[in-house]
Design a protein that fits this description.
Layout: H1 2-20, E1 23-25, E2 35-37, E3 79-80, E4 83-84, E5 98-101, E6 138-141, E7 146-147, H2 152-155
Antiparallel strand pairs: 1-2, 3-4, 5-6, 6-7
Length: 156
């Protein structure tokens, strides 16, 4: 029985090698030497499922663990009709988006104030897309990367 298994395994291995072996192209005498065509390589696809965006009333920090951001961290351009356009893995705004944040309200920069919890509801008195008291000090793209302030080009 072991001999039969060895023969079958050898046959399967041989068929596999034949199936993936490069195809040879013959040439007529006096022409270019024999060449081999390489088989097409399979294309890899990588997909990362980040799950659902955090349910936060005023947006969430773009860096993991994506804690809820306090009111005033994001400028009004981060909200459309009161809905957060997202940040980091869940950003769904335009590819050339740049918006202001107030980095003083970021826990990575030492902010120790109260943060909303996931699932909290926004205070109805806060107008997220019309925050006239917003004091941004940093420009970021939708993925959370610091970017030059587009207004800086106008000053020069």
């Amino acid at each position: 029985m072991n001999g039969f298994k060895l023969v079958m395994l050898s046959a399967v291995a041989g068929c596999t090698m034949l199936a993936i072996a490069p195809k040879a192209t013959a040439q007529a005498p006096g022409q270019v030497p024999l060449t081999q065509e390489r088989p097409a390589l399979p294309q890899a696809q990588v997909s990362v499922d980040t799950g659902m965006a955090p349910d936060c009333p005023y947006g969430y920090f773009e860096a993991a663990p994506n804690a809820c951001a306090p009111y005033g961290y994001y400028g009004p351009e981060w909200f459309t009709g009161g809905a957060f356009v997202g940040a980091g893995s869940w950003f769904h705004g335009p590819s050339d988006f740049h918006g202001q944040v107030d980095s003083h309200l970021n826990v990575e920069n030492g902010y120790k104030g109260k943060l909303p919890e996931r699932g909290d509801k926004a205070d109805p008195s806060y107008h997220l897309d019309k925050n006239t008291d917003f004091k941004g000090n940093e420009t970021r793209d939708g993925r959370g990367h610091k970017s030059p302030d587009p207004k800086d080009g106008e000053k020069k």
